[in-house]
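Is this the right way to post structure tokens for a design question? Let me know if I should format differently. Anyway, here goes:
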């Protein structure tokens, strides 16, 4: 029975994407490659994807929120905003990252306890940093959360795959499969390359039973 290979045996991001990885595993992989291992799963996946493309994303230096260590020159007013976050604060100037400080800020702004950043916010922050868009503010990012502003969209394919695997593994009809990830991957390939909706259904087991039996 074929098991998920170790990361060192994987030669392409396409092969890497066939398998499910926990956030802790992604962090370990990034650290082993000496690339940035901070952020959410979406960011870690992005860093690994760039690695396979030959683009090295170095680890981030720790932020102290001090004007003397920021990459960009800030005026006294901007320096003050680094300490006191407001919707007008520049995302670049305040050294934004997906940590508790900024979760607390967005929790206060939205009234949502245990605030969680959505995937479009992750994609937006990545683009803002890549383009060094100093004009982009925390208020703009709040509008991304509410869906009233569009800046960058997250690739939904990885989310579809994660849900596909989850639904496959929780289906009582799949309990007899010893290597669920492999079988889910077989079905996902068929669904992904077709025009059908990218979701798991029990009917797929019967439709592709010959292929499943052959490859298992």
């Amino acid at each position: 029975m074929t098991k998920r290979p170790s990361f060192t045996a994987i030669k392409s991001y396409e092969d890497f994407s066939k398998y499910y990885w926990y956030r802790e595993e992604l962090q370990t992989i990034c650290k082993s490659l000496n690339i940035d291992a901070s952020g959410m799963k979406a960011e870690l996946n992005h860093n690994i994807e760039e690695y396979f493309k030959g683009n090295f994303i170095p680890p981030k230096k720790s932020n102290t929120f001090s004007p003397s260590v920021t990459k960009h020159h800030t005026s006294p007013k901007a320096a003050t905003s680094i300490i006191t976050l407001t919707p007008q604060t520049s995302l670049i100037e305040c050294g934004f990252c997906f940590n508790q400080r900024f979760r607390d800020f967005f929790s206060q702004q939205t009234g949502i306890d245990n605030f969680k950043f959505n995937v479009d916010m992750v994609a937006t922050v990545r683009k803002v940093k890549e383009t060094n868009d100093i004009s982009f503010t925390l208020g703009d990012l709040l509008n991304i959360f509410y869906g009233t502003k569009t800046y960058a969209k997250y690739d939904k394919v990885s989310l579809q795959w994660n849900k596909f695997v989850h639904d496959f593994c929780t289906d009582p009809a799949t309990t007899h499969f010893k290597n669920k990830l492999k079988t889910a991957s077989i079905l996902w390939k068929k669904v992904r390359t077709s025009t059908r909706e990218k979701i798991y259904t029990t009917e797929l087991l019967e439709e592709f039973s010959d292929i499943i039996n052959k490859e298992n």
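Format looks fine. Someone answered above. Worth noting: Residues 119-131 form the longest helix (13 residues). Residues 63-81 have pLDDT under 50 and may be disordered.
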